[in-house]
């Protein structure tokens, strides 16, 4: 069990955790002794993910576009584990089309999930995290600094998430709360309808981001890697 100075078990709240990066982070932290809560909009998937992790992991249904639901689930997490030490903001969606062809509904879903949902998640968690300090990870993307054709909504959401993360660093540093933006390139996940396969072996794997998260948590308290860009080391030659 991983504990704080008072001997209380440390815990983590992870959004978008039914599979992929979120599930890998939850599995890694639970294996390191953290109490973990996984959230997803899909009840069956998140329950199965939590059961597969074991270690008392909680799987709950929560839509990050709903501030009241996030506040309720963060409070339930604190009641279950006695506090909140790590917040991993991971829930995200992607719609990709030229701006002229992107529907208002698609724009809203991406911004409401990737950016507003991140704000709602963090806002719900801050009161508990101020009690004993902690670490907030925002799962951004290299698309948060590199625009591409057809990425209007997704680029905007990740550029915005990076800005929000940088402000949070300044807002929270004197409360003992670190904030790191993790910005991966190609990751072998189910994002945007993709099905991982052997052809994805060259990509970053979800477990790699989980390992990075653990490594960052083990950094000295005095040091903050505020933005971490992650790329496949050997992408296919073009």
TrEMBL record:
Q: Which SUPFAM superfamilies match?
A: NAD(P)-binding Rossmann-fold domains (SSF51735)
Name the domain of life this protein comes from.
Answer: Bacteria
**Per the database record, which ranges form the Ketoreductase domain?**
10-190
What Gene Ontology terms describe what this protein does at the molecular function level? oxidoreductase activity
In the UniProt record, does the keyword Transcription occur?
no
Q: What keywords appear on the UniProt entry?
A: Oxidoreductase
Q: Give the SMART domains listed for this entry.
A: PKS_KR
Write out the similarity annotation. Answer: Belongs to the short-chain dehydrogenases/reductases (SDR) family.
The protein here is known as NAD(P)-dependent dehydrogenase (Short-subunit alcohol dehydrogenase family)
What organism does the UniProt record list as the source?
Deinococcus metalli
